From TrEMBL:
<dbReference type="InterPro" id="IPR012340">
    <property type="entry name" value="NA-bd_OB-fold"/>
</dbReference>
<keyword id="KW-0472">Membrane</keyword>
<feature type="domain" description="CSD">
    <location>
        <begin position="1"/>
        <end position="63"/>
    </location>
</feature>
<protein>
    <submittedName>
        <fullName>Cold shock protein</fullName>
    </submittedName>
</protein>
<dbReference type="Pfam" id="PF00313">
    <property type="entry name" value="CSD"/>
</dbReference>
<dbReference type="GO" id="GO:0005829">
    <property type="term" value="C:cytosol"/>
</dbReference>
<dbReference type="InterPro" id="IPR019844">
    <property type="entry name" value="CSD_CS"/>
</dbReference>
<dbReference type="InterPro" id="IPR011129">
    <property type="entry name" value="CSD"/>
</dbReference>
<keyword id="KW-0812">Transmembrane</keyword>
<dbReference type="GO" id="GO:0003676">
    <property type="term" value="F:nucleic acid binding"/>
</dbReference>
<keyword id="KW-1133">Transmembrane helix</keyword>
<feature type="transmembrane region" description="Helical">
    <location>
        <begin position="88"/>
        <end position="105"/>
    </location>
</feature>
<dbReference type="InterPro" id="IPR050181">
    <property type="entry name" value="Cold_shock_domain"/>
</dbReference>
<dbReference type="InterPro" id="IPR002059">
    <property type="entry name" value="CSP_DNA-bd"/>
</dbReference>
Amino acid sequence: MKGTVAKFNAKRGFGFIRSDQLDDEIFVHITKVDGRRALRPGQDVTFDVEETEKGLAAVNVVVKGAESSSRGKPVTIGIEEPKDRAKYFVIGAVILIIVVAAILLF
């Protein structure tokens, strides 16, 4: 099936596709997009439709003109790796210890 991205929230990883063949917009999650690329409103896509308990959802979504996911790295938008969070926590803890030590020494 062919359609156009109506809206997509890259931070939350989901949006909706408008199709000429269906009246309702179809839900799409970034995990169902080839290469897990974030979509942009207005992009032309091809996709299959799957019935879920919440309604129709797009699967096997491919952006028209985009390279296959086997050729490049997946793009993730707005998602921090857990190891990055741990690194910032350690840096914050060290700074806090230095500040407390400086206050106690003076």
